[in-house]
Amino acid sequence: MRHLILALFFATFPVTDAVAKVLGRWQCTAQYQGVPLQGHYQLEYWTRSGIYVHTGRLQAANGTVYDFEVQSDIMAGVGGVWQNNQRHREVHMQFLAYRGGFRITTDRARVDARCAM
User: Fold this and answer.
1) CA 16, CA 63: separation in Å to the nearest integer?
2) CA 22 to chain centre
3) What is the pTM of this model?
4) Strand, helix or coil at 8?
5) I need a surface site. Which of 36, 102, 104, 108 has the fewest CB within 10 A?
6) Which of 4-13, 56-65, 87-96 is predicted least confidently?
7) Beta carbons of 71 and 95 less than 8 angstroms apart
């Protein structure tokens, strides 16, 4: 129910209404199905709405790019991950940020990333 309320909130109020403060941007490494990934993770705090926005982009050596976004009032939440700028094929995921990294879990995979603080 809480996620439905958040979804309705974001559908009603444009993202531009929030003043975002970047709390950090870290370089990260991870593995997905045995393939090494490198990229970044950024954490923002929207002061007007009190929401944390977690975004990131990880890239494999073969050029495949994975992007993700989560909007939550805590350091964990539900969001989406998509491949090669195809957000219309976004996959539902659970996200957890912790000191030194983050975890993305979908129905098909789990990715643990380590980030330089």
Assistant:
1) 31
2) 14
3) 0.80
4) helix
5) 108
6) 4-13
7) no
